[in-house]
Amino acid sequence: MSDQVRKVFKLPHDKGIELLLSVPAGLEDVAVSRLPPELLQVAARISYRPTSGYLTTVFHVMDSREKEQAITLAISNLMRRPPLCIFAAYVSMGRIEVPRDIFEDPKDLLDYINNGFRRQQDSEMDHQEGSAIPTVDGSDCAPDMGLHWQDALSVLQCTPSPLAERLGSIDSTPIRFRASFDRGGFQHKGVRSQDLAAGLGGVVGGLFPSWKVDLTNFDIEVMGRWTLETSNNITTIKNPNPNVGRQDDPESCSSMDEQKSTRLGVEMQVGMTLPLALSTCPYRFRPNDGRTSLRIEIAFTLLALASPQPGNIVMDLCSGVGTIPIVGAIHYPTSVFVGLEILPHNADSAAENARGMLNRVLQEEESNSVALMQPDLLVGDARAVCWRSNSVDLIVSDLPWGQRESSHLYNCKLYPRLIREVIRLLRVGGRAVLVTGERKLLLRQLDAPFSKPYLRVLQKREITIGFKVMVFEVVRV
User: Fold this and answer.
1) What is the DSSP letter of 136?
2) Across 241-309, where does the E strand assignment appear?
3) CA distance 385 to 265
4) Which residues neighbour 65 within 8 Å (Cβ) at sequence distance 6 or greater?
5) What confidence score (pLDDT) does residue 10 get?
6) Residues 233/49, Cβ–Cβ less than 8 Å
7) Which CATH architecture has domain 282-476?
8) 3, 331, 344, 441: least surrounded by Cβ within 10 Å?
9) DSSP result, 378-425
10) Three-class secondary structure of residue 450 per DSSP
11) Is the pLDDT at 391 greater than 80, yes or no?
């Protein structure tokens, strides 16, 4: 880089930094507890809306060089070793308030999207008045929607990565980008996520003409999402570290989420991807996928919810390709993990996955002192487990559900026998964390005379694993 001209970037001091961390929806509170300590120490505030699938992490840079270095280091470490509870991370560039009348009319919303997320009359007025803004290349383009594009680029450039080098060099190859859109729980007839992403991509292409669209091998992803937030549905952790924040006015650390959540309205939040080292993380390596296998990030967060204790025997009655017991054995080495699978070819795939992840971790971990364990993977039937009664401390299972796995009629026969085995296997005080899309069917089994005296429901929560499903946590009484 010595013979190349570099642009100079600094972390934004006046507005601060807001990161959006994509986590398993419905498990946001669990994901917060698994964030790196160094990130929690420098964060001014962390907030989330339950079931949104996003954590909003706010940093105040202020004018302290030491504080700026600490924030840069925390973000850099997040990029190099992202925790398993995170799917992706974005640097928030702000929000755009969408008029309610436009949002509720699919035709008007499509016109609004195709016009660069503006009303037609606003676009014509801007064109007549010549109010287009210059791009980074010096040409004119469509307005930037009031978002802080350069602030997001400053954060990306201040972190060590190949992308930062390219952003800082004038003579680098063109940046490849794509746009995506997360509608969350909002549905529109006639308005697809692809339409929203295409409109957002058009804005990006207008602002950065030298960038090239690439939907697969992209360097930067610009993500938009709808937010409908009020002051009553935001959970906020104020100052995770009491030493962080402005001492003169602690309440001035309020995040952009809270500042805008006091009024009801539909907003579009836009973020620019933070390049995380996901593909090179040994803990995310799985040679074989099943048709309905859980993502490793979801399995990790479910295990964090279950919280295995040292010495516990933890069993997955429907382990498939072994995701839950493999992740559990590596991250909770003081517990014993057992995976039970009825299909021999799935059990073989699980054994290969266990060997593959263990070997990858051993190759890439610098310290040999890391304690790693392999799970016990068995071929067996969850309806009749060859295991002593009252011998299991914790059961964590993603039960069969959905047409890709089995039929509802089949599950009506399976679930009663499976719950009887849960009752038999668990010690008194033992717990089971069960995931299913057949929520009504499972609830009927838990309320049935054969199980109600022995199992008590501790909590139910809806999570998203591609579909909305229910997690039941029960305790043996």
Assistant:
1) T
2) 266-273
3) 52
4) none
5) 55
6) yes
7) 3-Layer(aba) Sandwich (3.40)
8) 3
9) EE-BTTB--S-TT-EEEEEEE---STTT--HHHHHHHHHHHHHHHHHH
10) coil
11) yes
Which residues, in sequence order, are CB contacts of 464 under 8 Å at separation 6+?
24, 25, 26, 51, 53
Dump pLDDT digits (tens) for 50-95: 999 999 999 987 767 788 888 989 999 999 999 999 999 999 999 8
CA dihedral (236, 309, 367, 73) in degrees, to 10, reads: 10
- Picking from 349, 361, 359, the residue whose alpha carbon sits closest to that of residue 323 is 349
Give the pLDDT of residue 234: 73
- Identify the weakest region by mean pLDDT among 81-95, 225-239, 268-282, 448-462: 225-239
Structure tokens at 464: 């998203």
3-class state of residue 255 by DSSP: coil
Phi, psi of 404 (to 5 degrees): -70, -25
Question: Quick check: 93 and 147 in contact, CB under 8 A?
Answer: yes
Q: What percent of the chain stands above pLDDT 90? A: 56
Beta bridge partners of 58: 18, 45
Dist. CA 314–CA 124, nearest whole Å: 64
Residue 192 identity:
R
- The tokens of 455 are what? 């199992």
Buried b (16+ CB within 10 A) or exposed e, 170-188: eebeebebbbbbbebeeeb
Nearest one of 181, 137, 272, 168 to 218, comparing CA atoms: 272
Find tokens 């029960």 and name the residue: 474
- CB atoms closer than 10 angstroms to residue 131: 11
SS3 content of the chain, % helix, strand, coil (to 5): 35, 25, 40
Mean pLDDT of 264-278: 86
- Sole residue written with tokens 């302290």: 64
> Pairing state of beta strands 17-22 and 54-59?
antiparallel
Indicate the average pLDDT of the chain: 84
Q: Which among 6-20, 284-298, 420-434 has the top mean pLDDT?
A: 420-434
CA distances from 43 to 57, 66, 68, 243, 277 (A): 7, 14, 12, 10, 21
Taking 60 as the threshold, does the pLDDT of residue 230 lie above it?
no
pLDDT in tens, 300-310: 999 999 999 99
Domain positions in the chain are 17-273, 282-476
Per-residue confidence band for 397, with pLDDT thresholds at 50, 70 and 90: very high
pTM here?
0.87
- Residue 101's pLDDT band, with cuts at 50, 70 and 90, is confident
In whole angstroms, what is the distance from residue 316 CA to residue 324 CA? 7
DSSP letters for 79-106: HHS--TT-SEEEEEEEEEEEPHHHHT-H
Amino acid identity for residue 356 in this structure? G
